[in-house]
């Protein structure tokens, strides 16, 4: 049963595209396990960081005797500690995410992205959690770095029924209250929401020095509006229908969509959050490859 669920959310072809790639935190992280990422704390580990004055009780084996012979001062060598990170995947399961068919449905695509990210993070011995929300926080799978976590996450994804509206800001604030360390938050949503309360929620996360990544998952129809003839539009989050000729709406719709996305991008730039626009018509392996390449370049030049 677990294997059949996994196959619905994790594509081996997509994994093969990113098999040798790692997701690295942008800043220093705090964790409770030895891992592969630098911590803001100094200790006695692998990479030399600097010196501090010797104080009574320090282990003499950490004294730098070269400094003593040149300066006649007892100095302790310090090193960078390495640690793990925790990544929180936050998935929008509101009714608007139902748009699309088959593999290009927004919710299905975003759920597969979440499962693939989770597998990648666990494989590198870091911890991952999953939160799902619509008007409220619906479910939360606590962080873990065991492979059994992937089964727990996909089983939770398999129980989703998108029927309600979105209340993204309140759900993010609730999740922020549960976080204690500097962690990574990856939000997968179409972000059809009011941006002012969303910015306040992201500012709260950034105040606590969490890294924030927004994966804006959009169907190609929403980005290009490629409709012709007489079309009936049916609301997913509001019980309304509109019968119209798309040619009359296209310019106004695309202008409104461009304005919303530009405001969302500006919001991210102001708060040093990442925004990744994802078109569900694109190959997911290529989406991840492009994102991880961009992330690697940004980390090298920070």
Second rung of CATH, namely the architecture of the largest domain: 3-Layer(aba) Sandwich
**H and E string:** HHEEHEEHEEHHEHEHEEHEH
Portion of residues in beta strands equals 15-25%
- Terminal residue distance: 44 Å
**Which topology of the largest domain does CATH recognise?**
Rossmann fold
Radius of gyration based on Cα positions: 23 Å
Measured as a percent range, the helix fraction is 25-40%
Tally of alpha and pi helices: 10
Low-confidence spans: pLDDT under 50, at least 5 residues? 28-46
Mean pLDDT: 86
- The overall strand count is 11
Numbering strands along the chain, what is their spatial order in the largest sheet?
6-5-4-7-8-11
Largest sheet: 6 strands, mixed
Summed up, the domain count is: 2
- Structural class, from secondary structure content? alpha/beta
Overall geometry comes to: elongated
CATH superfamily of the largest domain: von Willebrand factor, type A domain
CATH class of the largest domain: Alpha Beta
Describe this structure in words.
There is one protein chain. This protein is an alpha/beta fold. It folds into 2 domains: 244 residues, Rossmann fold, CATH 3.40.50; 47 residues, no CATH class. The chain is elongated and about 85 Å long. 39% of the residues lie in helices and 24% in strands. Helix 4 packs antiparallel against helix 5 and helix 6 runs parallel beside helix 7. It is built from 10 helices and 11 strands. The chain starts with a helix and ends with a helix.
Structure summarized in a few sentences:
The protein has helices at residues 2-9, 12-17, 65-71, 106-123, 148-157, 168-176, 195-207, 220-224, 246-270, 284-300; strands at 37-43, 47-53, 75-83, 86-92, 127-133, 137-144, 184-189, 211-218, 231-234, 241-244, 274-279.
């Amino acid at each position: 049963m677990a294997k059949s669920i996994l196959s619905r959310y994790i594509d081996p072809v997509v994994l093969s595209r990113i098999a040798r790639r790692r997701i690295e935190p942008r800043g220093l992280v705090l964790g409770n396990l030895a891992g592969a990422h630098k911590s803001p704390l100094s200790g006695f580990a692998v990479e030399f960081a600097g010196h501090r004055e010797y104080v009574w009780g320090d282990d003499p084996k950490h004294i730098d005797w070269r400094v003593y012979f040149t300066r006649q001062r007892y100095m302790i060598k310090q090193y960078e500690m390495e640690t793990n990170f925790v990544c929180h995947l936050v998935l929008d399961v509101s009714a608007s995410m139902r748009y699309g068919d088959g593999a290009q449905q927004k919710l299905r695509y975003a759920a597969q992205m979440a499962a693939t990210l989770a597998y990648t993070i666990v494989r590198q011995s870091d911890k991952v959690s999953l939160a799902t929300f619509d008007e409220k926080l619906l479910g939360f799978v606590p962080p873990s770095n065991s492979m059994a976590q992937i089964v727990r996450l996909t089983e939770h994804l398999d129980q989703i029924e998108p029927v309600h509206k979105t209340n993204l800001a309140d759900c993010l604030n609730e999740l922020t209250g549960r976080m204690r360390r500097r962690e990574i938050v990856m939000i997968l949503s179409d972000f059809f929401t009011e941006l002012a309360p969303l910015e306040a929620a992201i500012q709260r996360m950034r105040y606590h020095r969490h890294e924030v990544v927004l994966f804006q998952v959009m169907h190609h129809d929403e980005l290009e509006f490629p409709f012709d003839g007489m079309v009936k539009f049916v609301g997913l989050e509001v019980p309304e229908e509109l019968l119209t000729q798309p040619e009359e709406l296209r310019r106004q719709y695309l202008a409104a969509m461009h304005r919303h996305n530009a405001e969302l991008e500006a919001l991210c730039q102001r708060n040093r959050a990442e925004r990744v626009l994802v078109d569900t018509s694109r190959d997911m392996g290529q989406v991840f490859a492009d994102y991880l390449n961009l992330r690697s370049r940004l980390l090298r030049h920070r």
